[in-house]
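Fig. S4 source data, part A: sequence.
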Amino acid sequence: MKTMKAIRVSEYGGPSVLKLEEVAAPQVGPGQVLVRNHAVGVNPVDTYLRANTDNRGPKLPYTPGSDAAGVVEAVGPGVTTVKAGDRVYVGGSVSGAYAELALCEQAQVHPLPANASFAQGAAMNVPYATAYHALFHRGHGAEGETVLVHGASGGVGIAAVQLARARGLTVMGTAGTERGRRLVLDQGAHHVLDHGAPGYLDEVSPLTGGRGVDIVLEMLANVNLQKDLGIIALRGVSWSSAAAARSRSTPGWP
């Protein structure tokens, strides 16, 4: 029997419940793809599920993670989109991504462009899909509108800045460190605010000519939502990235 190393969770809790173990390597079935991981994405939703704070944790024991990038090891009957040896990124898996090998359904595996690193590929699924869902499916962001991205130096934040700028929105981002604020500007934000400074949201009104922002992408709604409502333009939208990420982790999410 072939084996591999994987991170396993046998009880819900903090980081200490993550254990490196030797487990049986998954075998491909019809319509499935086996990927040898070169990089793995670690997302906040992984920690929520591991802690089981809202009673939606996976059945124990399990291997965490949904995002990865690597090289196709093998494909099962009926797989036509990729072949052994292809560079790919993974958006979801059957067996869990925190492992040397990840078993995926064909639809969860996507070609990784030659100019993208494995680390970049492993950051694609949850951060960019969450940002896209929040900005455009829920926020209906359009060219000429203004968006404020809280925590813009994080994974979802950077994705949101890049996607919003590419769509033609005016982008404001917040970050708590000088390094983070430089990063947000480098990624395309028009304006950057220090969310650790008292009254930092007071800067929004003059930057928008007193109108407010059309969209607020919120990373910490339980702390900031009431303040967000004071800076939104008429008919504006505030959307929590955590809600988007959790909804994507729920079976049946479209």
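Fig. S4 source data, part B ends here. The longest strand covers residues 32-41.
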